Queue: 2 jobs
Job 1
Amino acid sequence: MSRYALITGASSGIGLALAEALARRGRNLILVARQRDALESIACELTQRFSVEVLFRACDLSQPLRLSGLLHELEESALHIDLLVNNAGIGTAGAYVTQDWACERQLIELNVLALARLCHAIGTVMAGQGSGQILNVASVAGFQPGPGMSNYYASKAYVLHFSEGLREELKAYGVGVSVLCPGPTRSGFFRRANMDVNALQGSKLMMSAEEVALITVRALAKNRAIIIPGWRNRLLAFCPRLAPRWLVRRISARLNRHFGKPV
């Protein structure tokens, strides 16, 4: 029986880089994103380059009914998914009360609820089979509060803590759970969040999606619990433990004002 890695948010950024890194290692893929044309092009390219089977499903995971349809389709197809990569996510920048509620709700639907639902549906199947692996993509933002991006930081804190708890729960069933916490990564994330990050372009904190993916795939092979690419990002994640909470909040707010000014 063929086994597949299902990757959400696979049309660009870290999701696309992970798809390529896994295909390079001979993994069959199911790619999920909103852009059907982009997915079709990516699927063709990866199939030709790496001789793997690449399926794709166009789906807006922030829409609960569409997510239900995707899960039903996967159940009916009986495809064997042994790796779930919950990468899809969005961000918003600016004071929370000045943001459009529809955008903030979409962030929660995608970053939190869709991820949790996919983990429940596919994780249940994995537990029944006694094997499988889940990778949830959080962020170094999940280790601290983030004034100026409060909803986004909180969503990634949920992903981080949820993944750690789920790891312990599913260990007895032979299912591994890891959480990826990247720092600033060259992708379309900042543009979609309406952020001006020119000051970050020359920063040593910024990593390429390909670098993040390579580190992640290697860590997955070792079933690492928390994956933080780059020593600078590991330092960013560790430092909030040493400082008082009021100071962490102020530093985070200042950084978000500097690097995340709305354009």
Job 2
Amino acid sequence: MAKRKEKAGEQHATIAHGAEALPAVRVTSYNLELRDRNGFIGDQANKSAFRDAVDGWRKRVREGGPDPLGDVPTDELTKKEIDAPLKDEQSEAAALVLAAIDDFAEALAAILARYLKEEPWKGTTKIAVGGGFRDSKAGLMAIAKAQILLKADGRKVELLPIAHHPDEAGLIGAVHLIPSWMLKGHDAILAVDIGGTNIRAGIVKLNLDKKPDFSKAEVWKSELWRHADDEPRRTATIEYLVKMIEALIARAEKAKLALAPVIGIGCPGIIAPDGSIARGGQNLPGGNWESTHFNLPEALRKAIPEIAGQPTFVIMHNDAVVQGLSEVPRMADVERWAAVTIGTGLGNASFERQSPA
């Protein structure tokens, strides 16, 4: 029998949950849990930290006069409402938001500087920034300011917003969990991005006929559930997720899209080889996701045993890793790079390009 030819690097990959060796890259670290005297340093540059910075400036300003952002509590302001004052840079409201951006950027730059001292991050030349905060003008300005601060500190690293919309990056990255030879003859895969506030499920078109490196992969259809509004139990969360996936499968069948029998998942926390969550899943809906009696990939495979008449294969990794993997084509000329995701928490991952055998 003829031996299958694999792409360079793919022969190193172990198809397992939370794997270090992936088809195109090696995951050198993820979910670094560095601390200082105030606790986990990542908590100083997540979505809540930015709002805390805005709120802090509002309180100080109110000591001397009216609040330029009005009476709406900071935690009720939308991203658009925080971005709006930045259109008029001469206003007090813009000055307040810019002050918060500066504070946040300083915290982010300091955290990245700490990460860059860690062995897995040494030699990193580019850092992609994703997560929901990147999808705002304030977020993009904070990323740019953090870049300036890192340069001023003599750190030769490029900080850049993740290329895809963060909602899509968390799905598109899943295609890089699987060797391309497993996907030949198929048009798309199912992908799931689980976060502390939302769960998104979607169909990612591979477009391998356009580019074999997945650089043309795109989200075809997706469904979003803001579970934070419903506060469901873990069991109800899985049941709802299964319904989302089944609806997407039906849409693919109706469109005659050839789905690979694969579900790729990005999920917070340390992902064990058996698909369980070792730690870091405390923000997931319903709690107890780290139980030894619970395994998300196995639960989905049991609920959806077949896709397009073939046994379902489920593969899961950390959500920051999966978002970072969406950058693989853009990092083709980079040996070592990293990704951070600014959302409910500050996710982090670092990568090294696989060497040919």
